[in-house]
Amino acid sequence: MSRESQTVRIHRQPKSAMQSGRAGAGEWLLEFAPGEPKRLDPLTGWPGSGDTQGQVTLRFPSAEAAAAYAAARGWTYEVAVPPVVKADIKPKAYADNFRFGRTDNWSH
Fold it and tell me: Segment Disordered: which positions (predicted)?
């Protein structure tokens, strides 16, 4: 597949499932579409292909910057807009466990 007809996907990096923080979740990623189907290696049984573009991920601060980069190189791109998720997080303090007039049950 020639580089001029390359298809890329632009999407926002998801929040890590391993931690509760949102660091790095604001970045936009540009990833290449697979150029050829994966096939099983006869020796190891692992899937793989000769397409090295699948290993490349570019990071951008905004979707517009990623789209401009792809357009400047003549690549076809699609932007996956993430759904708006409202974080309903209440700030808590350790001292609230001992406050007077607490209505919640004590857990221990």
Answer: 1-23
